[in-house]
Amino acid sequence: MDPEKIDFYNLGFNYIETKTMFVSDYKDGKWDEGRLEPFGSFEISPAAGILNYGQGIFEGMKALKAKTDVIVLFRPEENAKRLTESAKRILIPPYDEDKFVKAVKQVVKENKAYIPPYDSGGALYIRPIMIGNGPVLGVAPVEEYKLIIFTVPVGPYFPEGFQGINLEISKKYTRAAPGGTGYAKTCCNYAGTMKPAKETKQKGFAQVIYLDAVNKEYIDEVGTANFFAMINGKLATPKSTGTILPGITRKSVIEIALEKLNLTVEERDISYKELFEDSCTETFCTGTAAVITPISSVQIDDKKRTFGSGEPGEITTKLYEILTGIQRLEIEDEFGWVVKV
Questions:
Q1: Which of 42-46, 160-164, 217-221, 227-231 has the lowest mean pLDDT?
Q2: Which of 64, 66, 116, 192 is the most exposed place for a label (fewest CB within 10 A)?
Q3: Three-state DSSP state, 22
C-alpha cells in the first residue's frame, strides 16, 4: 500500500501491506545469509510441517519514532533470545541472534516510510515468523525452514488507548498446561484462544483472563498479554514456570518497578479470588502490542470487581509513563534498552 494514502492517526491493529520483507532459508543443515525481497506471497508444499503439524513460531516487535524523529527498537536482543528458546522447543534450528537483530534493522529501514509519526501514538509492528516449510508425512521435524520478517503500521492494540478495559475470568477455557508449550511463542498456541476471545467480546469484555489448567484458580495470562496486580502494596505477577510467555514488556516493568519506583515485586501464584479483595487495588496487563493497559474491572460469572473509580491506578500510570518515555527517548534510558536504527 502507498504510505501516502495511509491515515496514520486513525490506525487500528490491522494488516496493511508494506514494501519489503526479509527472507532466509534453512537447507542442507544451515541457514543462508538471507535477503530483502519485495513483500509478497511464496509457494509452500501441501505437506509442509507448518500446515500439517503447526511447526512454526513467531515474534512481535515495534519500531517507533522518537520525538527527535529518530527510529528506535526496544530490547530487540530479548526478542532474538526468545525466538531461539521457542525454536528449540519445537525443534526448529535456531537463527543466529546477532544476524536476526541486523535483519530486523534492515527491514525497518526499508519500510521507514510506513512508520507512524511520533505524535500519532502508532508504531511499525514487526512480525518475524519461522516455519517448517519442508514436506513431511509422519509427526517429525522437517528438513527445510523459512524465516520471514515483515512489518505493518499499527495503532494501539486496545483502541481505547491508556484507559481501563473490562475482563472476564474464564474457568471454561485454559491456555496452557505444565509441560506444554505455553512459554514458547508457537503458532499453535494462539489458534485455541480465538474462540474464547470471540465469546467474551460478544459479552462486552475486552479479553479473557486465563487460569491455570490444573487447579482453575491461579492466573496465567490475559489473552495475549501478561498480568500484574497491586496487592497489599506489592506488585505481583504470575511466576514464569513454563505456562506463560516470558514477556519482554513484563520483564521491563519488573525492572522499572524495582529500580525506579522501589516497589517490592512478587512473582508468585495469584488466585483470582485475591482480585475481589480490598487488598488488591490495581491491575493491568502488559505486552509488545498492549504495552501497559489498565484493567478497570474483572468478572467471573455474576461476581464483578471494579478497581477504584475504574480509571488507571497511580502505579499503573507511573509505570506506563516511564516505560513509554524510555521507549520514545523522552526519558533517559538508564537501562540501555533502546536501540537506534
A1: 160-164
A2: 192
A3: strand
340 lies in some domain: no
Let me know whether 110 and 172 are in one domain.
no
Pair (282, 185) in one structural domain? yes
Domain enclosing residue 134, as ranges: 3-154
Identify the domain boundary among 154, 180, 210: 154
Give the residue carrying C-alpha cell 532459508: 25
- Domain boundary among the residues 154, 179, 203 is at 154
Q: What is the pLDDT of residues 257-296, one digit of tens each?
A: 999 999 999 999 999 999 999 999 999 999 998 899 999 9
Residues 42 and 147 in one domain: yes
Catalytic-role residue among 171, 172, 185, 303: 185
Count of positions (residues) in the chain: 341
- Residues 256 and 319 sit within 8 Å (Cβ to Cβ): yes
Can 185 be counted among the known catalytic residues?
A: yes
pLDDT at 121: 86
Residue pair 22/148 in contact by the 8 Å Cβ criterion: yes
Is the CB of residue 220 less than 8 Å from the CB of residue 286?
no
| Residue type for position 245 | L
Is 100 part of any domain?
Answer: yes
Copy the grid coordinates of residue 189. 498456541
Element (H, E) at 191: helix 188-191
Judge if 149 and 171 occupy the same domain: no
H or E segment and range at residue 51: helix 49-53
Range list of β-strands (E), 45-155:
56-58, 61-65, 71-74, 123-132, 145-154
Residues facing 58 on adjacent strands: 129
The answer to whether 114 and 120 are in contact (CB under 8 A) is no
Domains held by the chain: number: 2
Residue 341 falls within a domain, yes or no? no
Query: pTM for the complete prediction?
Result: 0.94
27: enclosing H helix or E strand? strand 20-27
